[in-house]
Design brief:
The complex is a heterodimer of chains A (59) and B (383). With 59 residues, chain A is mainly α. Chain A has one domain. Chain A is 80% helix and 0% strand. Chain A has 2 helices and no strands. Chain A is rod-shaped. The termini of chain A are far apart. The relative contact order of chain A is 0.06. Chain B is globular, with a radius of gyration of 22 Å. Chain B has 21 helices and 2 strands. Chain B has one domain. By secondary structure, chain B is mostly helical. The mean pLDDT of chain B is 91. The chains are: A mainly alpha (59), B mainly alpha (383). Chains A and B meet through helix 1 of A and helix 8, helix 9, helix 10, helix 15 and helix 21 of B.
């Protein structure tokens, strides 16, 4: 057993726990973002269609 | 006038230099003939040749006439790009611009595999410390298990610059060898019945643009509050992703994914080679590090698969994870996801694991960066 092993063991325990905690937080963030900003079908904008017409006219 | 004066490089050549030139040629061969991470291994191989010709002007040399140091370009690149961490962090911007987080939004629970599959990092660190490496060196060796070249380079350049060469070679070589390393480990840990499990996810679910834009910003703020020293890693990755998702910087996003990634990778590879000089590389340490790197990749796979099996204990029949998905929690993207999908198809041609595998693999990309950040935070406290 080297003098570093015990410290490495502690880092490993805290490190693995830390990664899981981070991931749980990110998981919750994803759920939150999905709830706050759900997907909505975008309506075709009038400006867009007008632009297309103008472009077509130019052609 | 003797040979020494006429051709000082030949006079100064030792068998160690010749071995290193052989290593350089081998890396170039692997890059070209086997296509093992050619963007990195080819510049590293060529750089290894460049720095192992005695008196190479690519490295800093002492001018015999004046006794002054004449700076070599690779040493200048090293000081400017790697010692300062600029090159790997620029690569993170490029990687961030390449990552699409929407598969994670479709299957967020798979993010957890990105944590479990970092197990190899810490087990390897423990093992390295048992072999007598100090904490900083052991952490730098362990981080090979992040399966993420830039993270390995950032950690190793900060904690053990003298080991940077072998650590980089091991990290990039094993990333290329994922299709060879993972399948036997997975087969050893799973039954055929488990490998046949089909996973039904919400793969066609649409994700709002606003959520994808908000994600990198919120992650950066949260990660910064929890572990500020992880911010350079996570922040640059998320910045690249924001450039991708914002929708108003398409040219910059494409530049980051292509020109920035290519240029910095080129410089990174050849600059890392400046540490691959015979006196630093031909040591027992190099062999030990390369063996420990393999150990780390094997136990990453082990951690992911066993965690999936553990979660299955609590899940209902018909809703279980295919434990092979756990192995995708490493950062090697999309290699690992592709390997698992192919393994699934080999067992059952109608089993499509690609989407959940991609989700877990994206989780692994985040997990490896988080692991790097945590190591950068913790080690100085204990060392």
């Amino acid at each position: 057993m080297t003098p570093f092993f015990e410290k490495a063991l502690l880092i490993a325990a805290i490190g693995m726990t830390g990664i899981f905690l981070f991931m749980v937080v990110f998981y919750l963030l994803i759920l939150l973002l999905e709830r706050l900003m759900p997907f909505r079908e975008e309506k075709p904008e009038e400006e867009f269609s007008e632009e297309r017409v103008t472009e077509d006219e130019n052609l | 006038m003797g040979l020494e004066q006429l051709l000082p490089a030949i006079a100064g050549m030792t068998w160690q230099h010749l071995v290193m030139i052989g290593v350089g040629v081998l890396l170039i061969y692997l890059a070209i003939a086997r296509k093992y991470e050619p963007t990195l291994l080819l510049p590293m191989g060529f750089g290894a040749i460049l720095v192992n010709i005695p008196l190479s002007s690519a490295l800093t040399q002492i001018d015999p006439a004046t006794g002054e140091a004449v700076e070599g370009v690779l040493n200048v690149f090293f000081q400017a790009g790697i010692a300062t961490e600029i090159f790997p962090l620029l690569i993170f911007i490029a990687i961030g611009a390449m990552i699409d987080f929407s598969p994670l939004f479709r299957n967020p629970s798979l993010l957890l595999f990105g944590a479990a599959a970092q197990f190899g990092i810490f087990l390897t660190m423990l093992f390295a410390s048992l072999l007598g490496y100090d904490l900083r060196e052991a952490a730098s060796i362990g981080i090979i298990g992040a399966a993420d070249g830039p993270t390995s380079i950032v950690v190793a350049s900060r904690f053990a610059p003298s080991l940077l060469g072998p650590i980089s070679v091991a990290a990039y070589s094993y990333m290329a060898l994922v299709p060879i390393i993972q399948p036997p480990v997975i087969r050893m840990l799973t039954s055929r019945k488990e490998r046949l499990i089909r996973m039904t996810g919400n793969n066609s679910k649409k994700i709002s643009k606003q959520a994808l834009i908000a994600f990198p910003i919120v992650v950066t703020i949260v990660a910064g509050i929890i572990a500020p020293s992880s911010l350079s890693l996570i922040g640059f990755l998320m910045f690249g992703n924001l450039v991708r998702e914002c929708g108003v910087l398409n040219k910059l996003s494409l530049s980051a994914q292509n020109e920035l990634a290519s240029l910095v990778t080129l410089l990174l590879g050849i600059t890392i080679a400046s540490t691959m000089t015979a006196d630093r590389f031909i040591r027992v340490d190099t062999l030990i590090i390369i063996a420990l790197g393999l150990f780390a990749f094997v136990f990453d796979t082990f951690g992911g698969v066993i965690f999936a099996k553990f979660l299955n204990l609590f899940r209902k029949e018909g809703n279980k994870f295919n434990p092979m998905i756990g192995a995708c929690g490493i950062s090697a993207f999309p290699m690992s996801a592709r390997v698992i999908h192919q393994m699934g198809q080999k067992e059952d041609p109608f089993n499509y694991l690609l989407m959940p595998a991609i989700s877990a693999n994206v989780g692994g990309q985040i997990g490896s960066v988080v692991a790097g950040g945590i190591i950068l935070t913790l080690v100085p406290f204990f060392a």
